[in-house]
Cell volume regulation protein A
Amino acid sequence: MSISLDFLALPLLAAASLVFISVLAGVFSARVGFSFLLIFLVVGTLAGTDGPGGLVFDDFRLAFWVGNVSLAVILLDGGLRTDITTFRTGLRPSLLLATVGVIVCTGITGAAAYWLLDLSWPLALLLGAIVGSTDAAAVFSLLKSSGVKLNERVAATLEIESGMNDPMAVYLTLTFIGIALATASQGMAGLDVEGIFKSLLQQFGWGALMGAASGFGLAGLLKRMGRGADGGGGVRALLVVSGGLAVFALTTWLGGSGFLAVYMMGVITGNRARRQVRPSLSAMDGYAWLAQAGMFLLLGLLVTPTDLLRTIWPALGVSLVLMFIARPVSVWLCLAPLHFKPNEITFISWVGLRGAVPIVLAVFPVMAGVQGAQTFFNVAFVVVLTSLLLQGSTIAMAARKTGVDLPDPDDTEHARLVFGDFVLDASTPLETLCAFYGLPVPAESQQSVGRWLHQELNRPPVEGDSAQLGHAEISVRSMDGERIQQVGIKLG
């Protein structure tokens, strides 16, 4: 009598084959500008019920579990790679985008859903909250694979925002689910306004506390571990990722934001124990890619294209409003007061990538039993698909068109185009510069050109920043910490 191992072999064959096909297709598609994440999603859909694969998968609970765990791993990996010095230029705008920006985006997108999908206001705002935040997996991977070097302010803003806006999106989603269920059964009298604000404090309070405590604790532990005694970077990566998942689970159990906790833990650990963390980053990159592959494949399997077609046009309308109205308006409101340039605002608006987060959040109302929850899932899938297809494949082109990309050190032609033909030390007296090039002398001329440029920018300078002085454009050519080291001069 033999024991059949089909229960092991067949699911493993299907899963491994899907990942293999997705990666292989992604390698070729990346050459023409399509993202790996889009390929994972499409392969999962084609392998599903309505596709050639014909695999039947409708386990929302498993997809929800895998999605949350995967996002925790991706956020931890992103946090470990975030240099704390980027917070000098990126923290304030990122915090605004991750809070006020998500709320504004939710409101405008919710209004579009109310009109296009004929939903009640609680359900329309719920849909707006589901698709309201950018996605860490999409932003981290696509910025890395685009091959574009962005100026520090833009890159830091996008990366920190994507790591910090998930908690607000989760909070808003849970809040509007509660409002929708309460108003459906008891009307407006069922709303617990005090409970909503308590939940906000609890989510962010526990998330920040657990993230900070675990980050300092793990950094101290890694410093105490002897070199070579732990088996190398692979074992340390396993230690870090298991610790991160434990913190994510504990924070979520306490009612806090596990996403905020695990991202903060990564940032603090990665900066306080940089030498100890660096050898494990290659293994962490593998964990993050495996998490992304599994998450997008499972979410693709959940989609039924025949159901999707019933709401395709309203869903496309919601997606277009999100990309061309809601995201630009929210970014402009948050960044214009911080003296961001129009080209920077335009680029950050366009790179409001939606990835797995909206699809994972769309599972929340399904599991909560909200009426018509399948519609949210279908709309979220269309939003993600269009975002990865339109925005994800045009990052490099958008960076060049808006002028936020920086030249490679060896690309002298591009460097001249960006910085001009002349390079000066930033300590050069401003009066000397103006006299040599025949430029108008500013009122406060008793200072260096670097100091003048810093004052003109009215914000922390980064490489690529520039200001006009008469018929010349003076730009930041290189930085030494927070000090401008060299300036470029482009004569008009």
